[in-house]
Design goal:
Distance between the termini: 38 Å
Number of helices: 5
Number of domains: 1
Helix content: over 70%
Largest sheet: 2 strands, parallel
Number of strands: 2
CATH architecture: 2-Layer Sandwich
Order of helices and strands: HEHHHEH
CATH class: Alpha Beta
CATH topology: Protein Binding, DinI Protein, Chain A
CATH superfamily: Skp domain
Strand order of the largest sheet: 1-2
Radius of gyration: 27 Å
Oligomer: single chain
Length: 163
């Protein structure tokens, strides 16, 4: 498998060299910079704002459980064994419900995060395509390359095109 990757990378480099020598226009996008850009950060802020009410609701529920535990601890001396066991059971059910809600929220967040990342990647791809077509590039690469010269780096142009 590694040999296949090395061969593919070597062929890509040879193709890149051949295209470069033929006078073709080549560009490269640094995805690390794209993923750290303000546009990418805005996606994260959007998600945090979207889940803020649910986070607050979960925190409120967690606080209610803690308050019930504290009240039970305080009143346990005055309760019968039966009442004490019933209240402990009620708190355990609340904790189970809390864990379910927390897990559900985590799953929902992960799904939304993946959706937003896919949308962002689609926007990046559209920007790269648009740049390539409008400025006459024959090849624009990203996420591949050992050394990329400043002359072929089009990252800033792509950032300007991302919606």
């Amino acid at each position: 498998m590694k040999a296949l990757v090395h061969i593919s990378f070597g062929l890509a480099l040879i193709l890149f060299a051949m295209i470069s020598q033929a006078g073709s226009k080549v560009g490269y996008v640094q995805m690390k910079i794209i993923m750290q850009s303000q546009q990418s950060l805005d996606v994260g802020k959007k998600l945090m704002a979207e889940f803020k009410p649910r986070n607050a609701e979960l925190e409120k529920f967690r606080k209610q459980i803690q308050d019930k535990e504290a009240a039970l601890e305080k009143d346990s001396v005055n309760l019968s064994q039966r009442d004490l066991a019933a209240k402990r059971q009620e708190i355990e059910y609340l904790k189970i419900d809390f864990d379910r809600k927390k897990n559900r929220q985590h799953e929902d967040f992960q799904l939304r995060k993946q959706e937003e990342l896919n949308n962002f990647q689609n926007n990046v791809n559209a920007a790269v395509t648009s740049l390539g077509q409008s400025e006459g590039y024959d090849l624009i690469l990203y996420n591949t390359g050992g050394y990329i010269g400043a002359k072929v780096d089009v990252t800033d142009k792509v950032l300007k095109l991302i919606k």
